[in-house]
Amino acid sequence: MSEESLVFSNIQNAPPDTEAIKNAVKHGFPLSITTYTFPIEIEQYINQVLKVFLHELDQDYMTEYLAYCLKELIINSKKANTKRVYFKERHLNIAENDDYKRGMESFKNDTIKDITRYLALQRQAGLYIKLTLQVKNNYIKLEIKNNTELTVHEYKRIHDKLTRSVQFHSIPDAAMNPDETEGAGLGLIIICMILQKLGVQTNNITVQSQNGETAIGITIPVFHGEQQHMLLLSEEIAKKIAAVPAFPENITKINRLLDNPQTKITEIVEAINNDAGLTADLLRMVNNASLRRTSPCTDVATAVKMVGLRNIKNLLYTIGTIKNLMKSDKDQKILWDHAAQTAIYSYVLSCRFFRNEYNVISDAYVCGLLHDIGKILFESAHPDTLNIFEQICTEKSIPFLFFEKIIAGANHGEIGALITTNWNFPTVITNAIRYHHNPNQAPEEFKKSVRLVYLANMITHYQNGTVSFRDFDTETLEVFNLNSEEQLAALAYELNGNRGGGEFER
User: How far apart are CA 283 and CA 292, in angstroms?
Assistant: First the structure.
């Protein structure tokens, strides 16, 4: 079944999946709709998706403006596809100047008279138009792509319109010199004028034509009222939470010993052995099947030799976090099971892709396990604590909507990072938590660890069907040489066989 028929099925049976759109906005996933002929049903469907998309970003005022921009760009892409089948039918070479001029003299009249047939021909030829919406790094990214390359004439014409658009202050000004062969070209100029109203310059419009495709993109900054509210509220919440579950002092003391280069290994072993509960927890984690130890470890001294001081420290951070936050209720167990699966995948991926980088491998498991700590914090928060958060909204004049979004999981990476900063966690863990949905924003020195967690987390969602191949960050896929869905599916299948014990156990 074609992508367009899937879209039509959605239109006939139900409106767009609002929760899927919200999820895409929250995680920065791209939303794509493909069509061959752009009928009115698809136009209406796109407008509904755009409305939900912008509302979730608190950018509703852009809806009508961007709906026009998208419609105009899609129509232009459809026209470009129609040109290809028209020129082919007339045995004209669209890339040859004389043939191009001859074809365009009759293109408009001929296709208007018989548009249904020409649209059917372009569909038969597999000429599509694909719209993609995405919010990433506080920018809205719109892209219209079709699978034909621009001719030199078309490319120059588009750039001429973009360049000249800054000269016009009104539509009548722009209409003074119409191009009768291809329409007045007003659409692109009006798009530029609309973007200027939104505070966006023409250099935010990009045109790329290569490898058999043409993509026109528009990048628009998300105005930061919501981001400021979210960050402020996140910081206030982090302050309150930091005072609620203090990090276990016994583990803090041992980590101080680990941080001191003068400390002897025998002192570290003795400090852990003095806490029977901590010793049991540490040995259980060292013997976790997912870490692939060849033989069971029965004492702390052996554990230190087997996994090294860096790993011991990371496991202690893990144990302390679990003791602070883990509860036995069903919702939290689901979160912890997902965290454990992500941790195992992060570790296995690190051994495969960074086999000679000890620190990356050592940090992979703990970074994966704690990546969703922001979500888990809310699951463990006492009702009195939640009441405090509500009061913060009132005191800071923050709309309660933003608190509800944070409770639902928005900005959980930032909240988790603020908490681990307050608990003096290693910077690599904090960065893995903060950027696990936006790996390309991570500081360069931590990108390998962050990308491991991002990929592991996304693969767990891919396996349960909540994300698709196109939702993955392309730059991260390139880093791991995953150039097709077949390669990703094979890796996901392989990881599923490396899940070890599976569910998280306390």
Answer: 14
Alpha-carbon distance of 258 to 305, in angstroms, equals 14
Residue 282: which of 366, 347, 380, 349 has the closest Cα? Answer: 366
Confidence at residue 381, expressed as pLDDT on a 0 to 100 scale: 57
Q: What's at 347, amino acid-wise?
A: Y
Q: Would you state the pLDDT for residue 284?
A: 72
| Residue entry with tokens 């998706």 | 49
Hey, what are 420's tokens?
């681990």
141: left (phi over 0), alpha (psi -120 to 50) or beta: beta
- With beta carbons less than 8 A apart as the criterion, state whether 221 and 57 touch: no
213-221 β-sheet, strand order: 31-35, 129-136, 139-146, 213-221, 205-210
How confident is the model at residue 236, as a pLDDT?
63
327: which residues sit within 8 A by CB, 6+ positions away?
379, 380
Q: pLDDT by residue (tens digit) across 220-270?
A: 887 655 555 556 666 666 565 555 456 677 777 787 887 777 878 888 788
The string of DSSP letters for 88-109 reads HHTT--TTSHHHHHHHHHHHHH
Report the length, in residues, of the chain: 506
Question: How many Å apart are CA 45 and CA 347, to the nearest integer?
Answer: 42
At residue 218, φ and ψ (nearest 5 deg) are -130, 130
Contact assessment for residue 402 and residue 414, using Cβ atoms and an 8 Å cutoff: no
pLDDT at 1: 33
- Hey, how many other C-beta atoms are within 10 angstroms of the C-beta on 318? 21
Please name the helix (run of DSSP H) or strand (run of DSSP E) that holds residue 191, with its range, or none: helix 186-197
Q: pTM, whole model, 2 decimals?
A: 0.52
Q: How far is CA 211 from CA 77, 125, 155, 214, in A?
A: 16, 17, 15, 8
Closest alpha carbon to 197 in 65, 296, 25: 65
CA angle 67, 68, 70 (to 5 degrees): 65
Instruction: Yes or no: say if 135 and 57 are a contact pair by the CB < 8 Å rule.
Output: yes
**β-bridge mates for residue 132, sequence order:** 32, 143
Low-confidence ranges of the chain (pLDDT < 70): 1-14, 165-186, 199, 223-247, 281, 288-295, 307, 323-332, 378-411, 498-506
Asked whether 129 and 104 are in contact (CB, 8 A), the reply is no
**The tokens of 476 are what?**
């991260």
What number of other Cβ atoms are within 10 A of residue 29's Cβ?
25
How far apart, in whole angstroms, are the C-alpha atoms of residue 130 and residue 77?
9
